[in-house]
């Protein structure tokens, strides 16, 4: 009889949008069951919220440290298999560290850490303790993103020449964080440099950067950023435009902005190669445009029979039945969970499940954010080459 | 501590697309846990498949009759709260009947039955045993469909004049059911008159009809259908076009076809009123077009702040994070489950949860299918007025 | 040195939208020069308006009869080569007749006449006097409509099964014709049965019908129409929905409405065959969707290199430079004018120029309108087979 | 009686795409008649091609110099009123100069010149000889571009923060200019630095830059460009990405590329302000998206009643009848011609006709191209402030 994984969550208390997303994503395919939690830094809040989630009160903890310690002390067939880290960014490092050091696998929200030092520390810890670590760059979970990646890898685009990655939102066009009592909770921590690290660059720019690297397989070698805080009084960047140079000669442009009035979650990727190009939009994620130098234009659609194995591996429904945000996020969890199940059950992992965002990818993302901010300050091109530890 | 509902499933064995959809939809919001099943008419298959789903072997049954009887014999705090009926259409009636008569709530796939007599029998049984019965007309679960309905109800469209409902698929454009060993399993039962009742009219025409009635709130008074089987050897209709007349003078057109090569799941609804119109497409479900006689054109988007309570009640994610098929299907289960939880816990139901497709709606759907087939045979207009029992 | 044709116009005075469209279309390719006119039934208005168009006052006439007579009396190298008839519908017949009988070629707006008797009379006159007659079913002038037609003719769609033709406008959703002084001039004559014949069926339904026949090459054998006047006090139909049966077993649906609030000029055509389907939208006319039973989806685009000769013959610009309404209308004139030039110059016509809407096509259109109205009155299916005279 | 202007054309011989576009645009509204031409640098070709256009052989010249001189010698009521300059870029200056010095008005293709020195010379000549000079930045001729400009000017967007201008084509993704006999004629001169000046930056980047300035009314103060020639052996840039800073604090990004496989003529503009944003796409030019910080999304459509006077002034057709490339190009000519007619007839110009691209705008464009190339070479930010002479 199939036995799902047990997992615990740190963060994700009442009103935390991303915590609920992680819980839905984790349970979407029935591979993991929420079993423990340190859901809030306030122990009573944690306990009360755990009850609404149906958690055993004994498995709801007042702090991540307590949870790590007490879960580690439970028998192997009771304790959690992994932890989901969904706190504000500055806590990702200490929380992940506490669990990695006790041998727990980790699923962690992005950006991985708020400093490169912390990120590299996690790289070393993951290697040292040999745990599975997956960062939730959820947009890489869309089937047609995976198909785009396969097309590039298979050479269908020829040589990649130009990458256009954009992530535009409008929800921070006004000083939401400056309302009474700190304003919107979401806006408040995401614009607090101590909690979030960077602003638009960290929150969404890192998604665009990851998506570009994920699909092209190319590393960024140099960049030139113009970084702005448009909203008066804002303490982090809310807009950034970047020129990119990739290894091998491809050029790129990356646009990450949270003051784009009218935009909801406009994450788009275009890649122009010498032979063909692709175009994908997160807000209509079930279609991928593919056009060739010879003039053909075709649209790949979710669930169509001619998609490759990576896309099919990430799809649950037949043609015309759209899958969307939760399902893509669920694909991140599904791969990570199946890797853990294979580890648990001593079986060989399915190679398709190896497609996760690793701790080294996370360090690359943090390096990118720091480099972009440095370029913005320097008002010029900067070197962006980087190799994370233990890669 | 929150305790989710327990539910059993009849049908939905290996390879049954819609069974898996129901399971995902039922668990999406953590309101119900699969606890029992008669997953296949073959007892061994049922048992084996139950194991992959993590079901207790004692709760996996060889037949729906056994399941109804043995579950009813369990203590109240162990037995299932409701059953999901996801068999081929001809079994909906006997299965539902067996559970209703033992006091179980029912969630049933559509069309409700293959004969009007069976449908009316279920109407009477539901009333007699006072159980909650919800039909999964899942497209009514999309937030923007609910918003469209609210716009019509609030008079924003003025008087409804013209309704254009279309559901076009292409997957039956070839004789899929005539392959070796009966061809595709899906195609096979869906084109078998004994198992499915009707063809395109039942499988998808009933969705289009329900959507039109759901959003407008208007009943059909007369219809004229042209019903066709294009694929040689096919035993049911695979294409139907209908002229409709609604109460109050509105006219309509309904197009349901499964031979529309290239179409995946093109369900669309347009309603033109004297003051404004709406347009919605299932394949891009997060947008609703609204245009007025004065020339304004605006697009309502999922999660936008100005949607009404019914749409907000059916939404889980912030703007730009698309929800899609599973989430809409989950909304059907969520409302039904919350009604059952209120019944279980003795609380007042949230009025927004009362928005389910009732057994009477199901009878109306079956009457529509029969009337459309009759009109096709008669090659002319037929009366379509109908009042189900115990409405 | 190239010498363009000379043409005269009957109708098309100040404020007449379609007259200006014809003048622009006629001159678009420099093949014809406006040389004479009876632009208004009021001689002074005609004269004044002719002056603004730069017409020689001697060639501006007080009536079409005077124009026909006096132009015929001019020397062959001065008189007009053809006449454009852009009056309200009821005058098409007498005007065309006056010019045909004097040997002038005719370009005539649609629908051709307001009675079938008149239409058949024109068929006989055209044959008898051997003139070139072209009806301006301008939507057939779009390059991608011509490509769709070529795809059907080449068998790329297999056997045509289902045709969905729709023409929806919203401009008559209110009683525009009932304002002071007869209301809007356009609305006024188009809703006057004496001047227009039919309403929506004649004004736009005939376009949809022509488009369906033009692209499929199939004649309609039977139809069943629901014809409505939604706006109180309106004297013609403003909405019609039709079931169609074509020769060879294809079925169809045709929707023509002028009360579709929010719609501007939504003319669309979809054709589903046994092997592939096409979809085209007039409001985004530079794209044609083509999808196959095997799952390919491609988009043909104006000016792409792989379009066939008919589409290329109808295109003036390179890829991405959209051509639109005037250019499509101009293609109707271009073919007709090149046929006249070949006749004038004694050369063989280019076979691609033979693609015009003939007087027999016009009679078919009038027969369609009459049959649809009869079906609406009869509330049932009617025979729609028809062969025009001298076809 | 209305008398149209007479004009001559320099360049635009057989196969010259842009020459034919100018001729169609010039005659679209019947305001100007082609009367003279130096259509090719080869006198015989010029004469032969003039004949196909119906030109009087006496008015077809072997060189622009001959044409300028001989036309100037004709009586005032015979000589041309203006000249259209449609040669490769390097000839714009000498040709325009020859005609301006003789008092002829000029319509000139863009970019205005290949050096800033030439551009400034034209500024001085136009002022000195008091002629009307209009540059054909044709994309500014679209009605919805004019409406976007009016929205910005009226403050509907609040303070402009971010400008995203993109012009992507794919036709130069391969070395078209390196074929036999110099390859494609279009590709050949457009990639020859001596004839074209710059590559993508001049050919299409200048359109994007003009569009951004035209709609926002803001000048660029600094820029940082990454300029690339992707195709081996190409002698000019075929790709450029720019960071922009505008006066008043707005930031921008400009992307101009001709190696974007699959793109035809993707010119798009987005402007995000503090209160609202606009988005426009040249390939679907009849729609303008407008969204506010409060969440409203609306679509302005060509010919809708609520467009402002500038858009209405530039529109010929009712709603839903799309106007496109030729019509927008024609609007450039229409305004310029009406200014000339007012000058000729001694009347006051319509203020709406003053909306033309002036010789100073042209100089700004040339300065932009030179600055962008300089930034690319310097690999860093450069000052972009500029004031043309006699502005």
Short description:
Chain A is 35% helix and 22% strand. With 391 residues, chain A is an alpha/beta fold.
List the helices and strands and how they pair.
Four copies of one chain form a homotetramer.
Chain A: E1 5-11, H1 17-27, E2 32-38, H2 43-52, H3 64-73, E3 82-86, H4 92-100, E4 105-108, H5 116-129, E5 133-135, H6 143-153, E6 160-168, H7 185-190, H8 193-196, H9 200-216, E7 220-228, E8 239-246, E9 251-257, E10 266-273, E11 276-281, E12 287-292, E13 297-301, H10 309-313, H11 325-345, H12 359-378, E14 381-383
Parallel strand pairs in A: 1-2, 1-3, 3-4, 4-5, 6-9
Antiparallel strand pairs in A: 6-10, 7-8, 7-14, 8-9, 10-11, 11-12, 12-13
Helix pairs in contact in A: 1-11, 4-5, 5-12, 6-9, 9-12
Folded structure, characterized:
- Four copies of one chain form a homotetramer.
- Chain A has 391 residues and is an alpha/beta fold.
- Chain A has twelve helices and 14 strands.
- In chain A, the strands form two sheets. In chain A, strands 13-12-11-10-6-9-8-7-14 form a nine-stranded mixed β-sheet.
- Chain A is globular and about 65 Å long.
- The two termini of chain A are 37 Å apart.
- The model of chain A has no long low-confidence stretch (mean pLDDT 95).
């Amino acid at each position: 009889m199939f036995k799902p994984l047990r997992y615990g969550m740190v963060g994700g208390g009442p009103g935390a949008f991303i915590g609920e997303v992680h819980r839905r994503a984790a349970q979407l395919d029935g591979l993991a069951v929420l079993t423990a939690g340190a859901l809030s830094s306030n122990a009573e809040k944690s306990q009360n919220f755990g009850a609404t989630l149906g958690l055993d009160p004994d498995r709801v903890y007042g702090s991540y440290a307590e949870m790590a310690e007490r879960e580690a002390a439970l028998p192997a067939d009771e304790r959690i298999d992994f932890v989901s880290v969904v706190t504000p960014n500055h806590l990702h490092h200490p929380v992940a560290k506490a669990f990695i050091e006790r041998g727990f696998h980790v699923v962690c929200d992005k950006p991985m850490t708020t400093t490169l030092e912390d990120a590299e520390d996690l790289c070393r810890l993951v290697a040292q303790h040999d745990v599975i670590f997956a960062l939730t760059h959820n947009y890489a979970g869309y089937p047609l993103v995976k198909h785009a990646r396969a097309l590039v890898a298979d050479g269908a685009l020829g040589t990649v020449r130009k990458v256009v990655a954009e992530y535009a939102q409008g929800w921070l066009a006004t000083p939401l964080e400056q309302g009474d009592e700190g304003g919107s909770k979401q806006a408040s921590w995401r614009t607090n440099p101590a909690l979030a690290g960077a602003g638009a660059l960290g929150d969404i720019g890192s998604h665009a950067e990851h998506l570009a690297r994920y699909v092209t397989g190319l590393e960024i070698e140099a960049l030139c950023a113009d970084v702005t805080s448009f909203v008066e009084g804002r303490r982090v960047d809310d807009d950034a435009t970047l020129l990119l140079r990739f290894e091998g000669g491809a050029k790129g442009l990356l646009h990450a902005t949270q003051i784009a009035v009218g935009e909801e979650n406009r994450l788009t990727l275009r890649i122009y190669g010498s032979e063909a190009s692709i175009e994908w939009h997160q807000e209509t994620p079930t279609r991928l445009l593919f056009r060739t130098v010879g003039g053909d234009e075709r649209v790949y659609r979710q669930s169509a029979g001619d998609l490759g194995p990576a896309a099919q591996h990430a799809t649950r429904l037949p043609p015309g039945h759209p899958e969307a945000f939760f399902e893509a996020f669920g694909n991140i969890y599904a791969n990570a969970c199946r890797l853990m199940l294979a580890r648990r059950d001593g079986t060989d992992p399915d190679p398709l499940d190896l497609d996760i965002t690793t701790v080294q990818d996370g360090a690359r993302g943090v390096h990118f954010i720091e480099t972009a901010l440095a370029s913005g300050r320097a008002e010029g091109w900067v070197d962006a080459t980087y190799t994370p530890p233990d890669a």
